[in-house]
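Hey,

The postdoc asked me to send both predictions to you directly instead of through the lab channel. I've kept everything plain text so nothing gets mangled by the mail client. Protein one:
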Amino acid sequence: MKEMEYDRELARLIDHTLLKTDAKKADFDRACAEARKYHFRSVCVFSGDVEYVAAKLRGSDVIPIAVVGFPHGQMTPVAKAFEAHDAIVRRGAQEIDMVINVSALKSKHYILVLDDIRQVVRACEEKPVKVIIETALLNTYEKVCACCLAKTAGARFIKTSTGKEEGGATVEDVRLMREVVGDEVLIKASGGIKSREFAYALIAAGANRIGTSQSVAIVTGKAARGGY
C-alpha cells in the first residue's frame, strides 16, 4: 500500500481547531481521528469539550488544548483562572489558549491586563499558556503593549487571533510580535489560515505554531473551505 502523502513537518506545528458553537460529538470524533492520522500537534476546543477530546486522544502523540475566556475575554481574571485550572487539573488539557481583555487594553488599564494573564498562568501549574491578543482589533502601539504584558506575565506563547473577528493572522503582525518578544516567547498564528503557502509564510515571519480548522487541506494540499 502506498504511504499516505502529506506535509509531516508542517503537521507537527498545527493546532487542529474545532471551535464551532454547534459542533456535535461526531465532529469531535472526526477532529480527533484526523489529528491522530496526520499527527497534528494538538486538537484545540472549548474548555467544556476538552475532557472528551483528551480521552479520545489518549495514547497518541496529539495533545488536547482548551481555550479560556473565548472568544471575547472580558470576564474577570478570577473566572478565567478558574476555567483554566479546571481545564488543566480536571479535564486533561495540556495547554491553554486564553483571550486577552481587549477592552481593558484599549482603555490603557494595563494593570488589569497584566493581572488577568498572570492569574491564568499561575492557575495552569506550569502548563503552557498562549495569550490571544486579537490583532485585528488593535493598532500597532496596542499590539506592542499586549506582547510586552503577555511576556511580563509569563506567557509561553502570544497568539494573533481568535478567528472570530473579521481579520486574522498576517505576516506583518507575526513579524512585529517576533520583534517585540524576541526569542523568549513563542508565537502562534491563527485566523484565516487556509493554505500551505500562507502557513509557511507565517512560520518564516516568526510563527512557531499554526492554529486552523483547515489542517487536513493544508497538509495534503487540497482546497480548503470556510472556517477558522
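Protein two:
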Amino acid sequence: MIYEIEEAREKILEACREMKRANLIARTWGNVSARISDKEFLITPSGKDYDEMTGEDLVKVRIRDEKWEGDLKPSSEKGMHARLYRRRPQCDFIIHTHQTNASALSILPEDLKLTGMQDNLVTEEERELLGTIVPCAEYGLSSTAKLARAVAYQAKINPDCRAILMRFHGAVCMGADEQEAMAVAKALEAVCERIYEKRCGEKILTEGGISFSREWQDGWLVHTRTPYVMEMSRRGKTLKPYLDDMAQIGGLSIPCVGSLPSGKEVRKALKGRNAVLIRGDGALCYAAEKEEAEAVAIVLEKNCRAANLGLKKAAPSVPAISARTERSFYVKKYSKLKNSKGQEEEE
C-alpha cells in the first residue's frame, strides 16, 4: 500500500522501535523507509536516536534521482531504498537491519534456497513470507552505489524474494506494508538462526553479558563475557573483522592478550582499535561514552559469532583494503560520535 504521509511517519517510527525491541539493530544502525507516492518515499534521517525521533524528522526522497528535501540529511543508504522501490512497484515498505544471525550467514557467498531445506530449518509459513530464496548480494562498501546496485540486482533476478543478505554487512527486508516487512525480518532471523546452528553443528549459547562498565581515560571501558566473545577469547588468537561494522567500530584486528591487563597494557592494546580480547575471559571494549562502549561490545559479539562460522567453513573475513576503508571512514566521520547537535551518525 502507498502510504499517506502521516501514516507513513507513524509506521516508520513504529518499525524503528520494534527493530530495537527485537534486537534487529544496535543504536541507530539500519534504516527504514515507506513509499508515499509513485515518486517519493520517506526514510529515517542520518544519526537520529530512534527513541527520540519524531515524524517530522523523517526525510522525503525522490525515487527517480534520490534528491531530498528538508534540513535533516537522509540515511546514506537512501540509494539502495530508491533502487528497490524502482525495481519493486509492489513494495511499499523497506527495513535494512544488522540482525545477528542473518549478518553471520552473510559472510558465506551463497544464497539460501528455502525450497530444498528441511522442515526443521524453515516452515511453510516462513517460506510464504520469504519466498523461495534469500539471495546474497555481492559485497560493497557501506552506503556506496556499488552496494545499492548489488542489492537491486538480486531483487531483479530473484523477483519473488522479500529479503536479501548483504555480504559482510546485514540484510534488507521488503513488504507491501510495515507489518509484512517486519514479519519478513523476524522470519529471516529465525530461519538464519537454525541454519547457523546446523552449519556450525552447535546450539547457539545465550548466557553471559557485561561483567563491568567503568569510566576510564576520558571514556568508558566495558568488560564483556558474551558467549561468542568468550569462545574467541578461549581460542587465544587475533580476531579479524568478518563484518564491516566490526571493522568500522572495532578496528582492523582485535588482538588477544594473556590476562586482564593493567591500565598501561590496556592503552597499548587498544591503540588504533576499540576492543581487545582477554585469553579465556572475554574482551575489553572502549569508547568515549558508556553507550558507545556497550555498542562496541554488541558488535564484537556479533562479529565473534560470524567468525565462529567463518573459521569452521574456511570463509574469508572482510577484504583487508575494504576493512581499512571502512575503518578510516568511521574514524573520520563516525568517531566524532556526536555532531554539533549531539547526534550520532548513522548509515
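Summary for protein two, as requested: Residues 5-200 form a domain with the L-fuculose-1-phosphate Aldolase fold (CATH 3.40.225.10).

Thanks,
C.
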